Each structure stands twice: as structure tokens, then as C-alpha cells.
Amino acid sequence: MIGGLVKSGSRLALMAAMGLFAGGVAMPSAKAADLGGDCCADLEERVAELEATTARKGNRKMSLTITGQVDRVVTWYSDGKTSQTYYGLDNTNSSSRFIFNGSAKVTPKVTMGFEIMIEIEAGGTSSKVNQFDEDGKLTAFIPNPNIPGVAGGNVGIPSFNAANIDAYFGDARRVAWWVEHADLGRITVGRWESAGVLGTIDLTGHIFLPASASFILLNGGFFLRGPGGQVYTTQWASIGDPASNNPGRTELVRYDSPSWHGFIYSASVAEAGDYWGTMIRYANEFQGFRLAGTVGYERIQDIATPGVVDPAAVNYVGNKPDITVWGFALSAMHVPTGLFVQGHYNHVDYGNSIVGAVSGYWGQASTNAKPADQWLIQAGVSKNWFGYGNTSIYGEYGVADDWGAAFTNNGATIGRNFSTPANTFGFTAVNGVTSTEMKVWGMGIAQNFAAAATDLYLGYRHFDADIKCADAIGAAVCSGGVAVGAAHQTDKLATEGIDVIVMGARVLF
Predict the structure, then answer these.
(1) Are 460 and 500 in contact (CB under 8 A)?
(2) What is the Cβ-side half-sphere exposure of residue 377, based on CA atoms within 13 angstroms?
(3) pLDDT of residue 407
(4) Tally of structural domains, the chain
(5) Alpha carbons 95 and 117: distance in angstroms, whole number
(6) pLDDT, tens digit (0-9, with 9 covering 90-100), for 135-177
(7) CATH of the domain at 215
(8) Taking Cα atoms as reference points, which of 267, 113, 281 lies closest to residue 193?
(9) How many other CB atoms are found less than 10 A from the CB of residue 183?
């Protein structure tokens, strides 16, 4: 690279190149005379200019590689009453990002390195948009004093992309260093994925783009609707998995063993030592079959956000969760035919949340949160039929239970209440939710173009919700029923399903 040459090296290289050229080709003397005596000075000046403007890494010991991806989509939805197409969103299933990583050999068996990964976190993404806001979260609306309305006169304006203001790009997904011994394994220190519970392992390498293991990364921001057109305060993300079926990213120390007959063991400890996880992964191929699987466990007692900080207090008063999570995944592909089946199951128990506070870990958004689970199965065929790269056709079905539900306690109905987003009006409240179920089915196709390091994809998912509520004696149940008598009444919330189609491309660089 020209930018990496020092001036003396540049001069010698240029003179050598000119000498070889002149020695290898007969050149008329008149032409040589036309070059003039200051030709090399001009070339050296150009080289010096390039050296001054070319990006370079800080030292020659640690390698530096810049990689990443751009993943943008066109999304169409229909919620039973309205439909719309949003253009150019970022795909939260596999966000646009860029990565800086490097490594250096210390000994023949010891390597040290680092990684910094920055992903998009602002503006219009597939998990943030909804029926009323194509830029970001509806809760990000800010009051608009120039528009009169009800309840104080402010109906709100969107805070993303207002007046064509460009949104910031990213968020630190990974920032860590590591040291690895070929026989002993790797230690990672920094911000990274914790060891623990994984979702579906995609053997095709690209159907997760329209159909990830999470159910809420394409439609999570949309609000549920009723058969009468009413818009509930509940969003689809509130009753689906918390997009945590890949372990949470946090500040940690993690160990990964070397591969032993296809098995890798991993363990991590995070935060103040009260967030830890462990897992075993397997990947191998034999007799024409490719297999991959994992089983994992997590325990979380970390206080995410202190409620009260008082050094003099005997007992620390804070947001103390006691969450346990376990899950497994298994995937198989018959390589000669390309036929595959893959899936996972996850279960979370929020422990003492009846007396605790909301932690946010594994989607805990209410006190008294019920245990929840989720499973997904996908099947199809992935083959290079056209010579450009693998074409994958798939179908899928999955269920998420009780992610938006809460217990009743001590004879008094608690359930979960969903509040109205700030600066919005006309939403129908949903209170006392004690049971939720989200069913998802879909299909799609993904095409790899190996020569361009690009995947094109088209996916469809349909979502249905089953929500049950209970309420205090004499109060409305869910959003329409009425409780009567001494016993607490239970009612089912009438909901419409939602259809989502996503079409896009991921370009690797």
C-alpha cells in the first residue's frame, strides 16, 4: 500500500520500477529525454500526498481488519384494519454494522486480539416502526406546542428524522479483547454475548434474515387491534419473546474451550458477579449429514437499575431479580439433498418477582411476571440450483407463551397493565393480563450471490394473539367485559392478527 511507505522507500521503489521498465523495453532516446530532470520530484510529491491522506493502522504488530454488513428492507403489513409499506428500514433480524478486529501471534500457540462492533440503533428499523410512526418508537414522540389538542394541547411530533435531521448511526454491540491458547481455549474480557441460552441455529446461513429465532424483530413495534378497529395499548413485542434468545450482551469475562470432537464448552460471569451462564455447543458433519446443537443455562441476580442507593442502609434497596433461564436448540441438514430441519425451545422463570421489581432482563417488564417459554421449528431445502449460490426455501411455525402476563397474588388480581404511550390519545387500555399466547407461522425464500457477497430474501409471517385478563370485583375485564359477583372474572381480549412481508438484501463487506 502506497500509504504505508516511508519517503526513502518510495523513492527507491519508484527508481527500481523505472529502471526495470527501461531495462526490459527498448525506449527511444528522444522519448527518454522528454521526461525532463524533475520527473521524479513530481512523483515523490504525489506519493507524499497519498501517504499523508491514506488511513493506516497504528502499529505493525497487531493486524487490523474492517468488515461489516448493510441490511436494509422494504416492509409491508396489514393489521386487519390498515395496511402500509415502509421503505428502506434497517433489518433488526441482522442489523447493519461495521466491525474492527485484529490479532497478533505471541507464540506459535498463543494469540491476542480485539473486536469492536458498532450496529445501527437509531431511526427507522423493522422492530421500531408501527402503524402511526414510520421513523422510530411512538413513545419517542415529543410535545408539539404549535398543534392544539386535548389534554393540555399537545398531540406530539416525531423525534426521529424531524426536519430531515440525520439520525446517529450506532451502538456498541461488542467491545472486547481476548487471549487464546490453541490447547486451552480463549478468554474474552469486555462487552460481549454472555454464555447461556441460544435460539435456533440456522444451517442455511441466511433464512434468519427474514425469519430469525425471535418473533418480534420484524413487527414488535406494532400495536394490537380489535375487531372493531380499536387500537390497544399492547404492542406485539409486549407478548412475544424479548429478542433475548441469543444471550444478552453485557460487560463480562467469558471462557470458550477449544473444539473437542465438535463440542465447545463456554461459561461467563458478568456485571458484579451476579449474572452468569454456561452452555455446550456442538457442530459436526458426517455421512452426508450436518448437525448443530446447543444446551444452555443462565442465572441473573444483577441489579440493573438501583431503586434507592443508601450506603448506610443495612439492606441494599434496589431492583433485585432472581431469574433462571434454560433452553436447547438442534439443527440437521442432509447435505446432498439440502433438506433441513431446525428449531429451539427456551424457558424463563422470574423467580421472586412477586416481591421484586421490574428488572428488564429477559423481557421482564412487570412485577409478578409469570414463567414464559417459546419454541420454533423451521424446515425446508437449501441448494445451489442456479450456480450463483444457495437458494433456500423454508416454512416455519412457533409459539410464545406468557411473555406479557403476570400472576395474581394473595387473592387479589394483579395481572399486567399496559399503559398508554406518552402524548397519544384514543388508545384502548388493556389491564389485568394473566395469560398471553402468540402464534407465528410463515414461509419465504433466500438467495445467495456468492460473487457479490450478497443475500436477497423475501419472507412472510402471520401473527395471532390469545390474551386473557382478570380484574378487580366490579371492574371492567380486559377492555370490554364486566366482572360481576364475588369471584374475579376472566375474559378473553378480542384481537386481530397481523401479516408482515419483508423483502431486502444483506451485503457483506
Answers:
(1) yes
(2) 3
(3) 81
(4) 2
(5) 11
(6) 765 444 444 444 444 344 444 444 445 555 566 677 899 999 9
(7) 2.40.160.10
(8) 267
(9) 7
pTM exceeding the 0.85 threshold for the entire prediction: no
Do 46 and 69 fall within a single domain?
Answer: no
Same domain membership, residue 162 and residue 264: yes
375: DSSP letter: E
The residues that bridge with 383 in the sheet, in sequence order, are 391
431 and 326 in a single domain? The answer is: yes
Q: Return d(Cα 30, Cα 27) in angstroms, integer.
A: 8
Q: At what angle do helices 7-24 and 39-53 cross, to 10 degrees?
A: 130
172 CB contacts (<8 Å, ≥6 apart)? 116, 117, 118, 191
Domain span holding position 45 = 2-52
> Residues 410-456: pLDDT tens digits?
555 568 888 777 666 788 888 888 899 999 999 999 999 999 999 99
User: Residue 87 in contact with residue 74, Cβ under 8 Å?
Assistant: yes
Rounded to whole angstroms, how far apart are CA atoms 140 and 453?
A: 36
Residue 487 has pLDDT above 70, yes or no: no
Report d(CA 504, CA 456) in Å as an integer: 6
Same domain, 182 and 294: yes
Residues contacting 69, CB < 8 A, separation 6+: 94, 96, 97, 506, 507, 508, 509
Same domain for 326 and 287, yes or no, is yes
Structure-model confidence comparison of residues 418 and 315, the more confident one: 418
Asked whether 80 and 72 are in contact (CB, 8 A), the reply is no
Are residues 226 and 370 located together in one domain of the fold?
Answer: yes
The enclosing H or E element of 23 equals helix 7-24
Q: Which three cell numbers stand for residue 87?
A: 421503505
Q: Are residues 263 and 363 in the same domain?
A: yes
Which one, of 392, 254, 248, 255, lies nearest residue 321 by Cα? Answer: 248
Same domain? For 382 and 426 the reply is yes
